[in-house]
Amino acid sequence: MANIDIGNILKSVEDQSKVLAEKLFKQYTHQALSDVRDFLEKSKDALTRWVEDLVRGDIDKDEFESLIKGQADVAEMRALKQAGLAAVQIDTFTNGVLDIIVNAAFAAIP
Amino acid sequence: MAEPSRSQLAGKVVPLRNLIAIAASLVLAACSLIAPYDRAAYEHATNAKVDTLALMSKATSSYDEHEKEVEALVRQLDKAYEYDRGRQLNKITIAQWDILRDPNRDLVGGFLKMWKAKGSLSVTFIAEKKKQIGDAFDQIIQLESGKPRPAK
Q: Which of B27, B99, B125 is facing A76, going by the closest CB pair?
């Protein structure tokens, strides 16, 4: 049986996986935070407009309420999108780690 | 004990490589958390967004005049939903469609219900609701376009 250094393979897999995780999840965190900030900014502006519209009588109470509740619905849909995009990152990470394991194993076979 | 010959080693190593590759493929297939990108689903969502916003603009006039168009839009949304419902690992997108279409919430379903109940809606409300519902559709569209592309 060929002499394969398992300890060396595991160390290599760990080091490369750490680099991959840092890269992928840093990108994702940055994107998710930017999305949340954008939504909060939009919501703040919209709420100010709707209160003014209500006061002027351009929209009635039902319409105002629908806009407020609708914004909460959009927030929920946005959170679902972020959950989905996080799942994509996890898949990408899992596939990347598998590639690293396979390559490290192949490299160790004489 | 005699050392294995080069050809004997090669005979062991090649099956080992194949075994690793097969195992990796199997693990890969079993590990996905989310459906891959689907062009048809993406197009359903973008078309539905355009058609929904266009019909919403007509809500300043009587609901009765546009009832047939409303029915056609609801059917279009139902088709997009059913298509996505038939895809595996697609629960998150389905949950998004559920919120968007629900008549008891305040996006497309709620808007159409309100239009029907009130007969017509104010210009300002429609303009604001269009921005909101456009944003809601974008959440489905952005998630779809962020899904992994299937391997060719």
A: B99
Give Cβ neighbours of residue A32 (< 8 Å, ≥ 6 apart): A82, A85, A86
Give the integer Cα–Cα distance in Å for A20 and A98. Answer: 12
A110·B128 Cβ contact <8 A: no
Helix axes A61-108, B91-101, angle to 10 degrees: 170
Instruction: Specify the 3-state DSSP secondary structure of B69.
Output: helix
Residues B45-103 pLDDT 10s:
999 999 999 999 999 999 999 999 999 999 999 999 999 999 999 999 999 999 999 99
| Chain A residues in contact with B94 (beta carbon < 8 A) | none
ipTM of this predicted structure:
0.83
Distance CA B15, CA A99 (A): 18
CB B20 within 8 Å of CB A103: no
Closest chain A CA to residue B148: A88
Provide the CA B1 distance to its chain's centre, in angstroms. 63
Taking Cα atoms as reference points, which of B66, B42, B39 lies closest to residue B55? Answer: B66
Q: Residue A3 CB: number of other CB atoms within 10 A? A: 6
Contact A53/B105, CB-based, under 8 Å? no
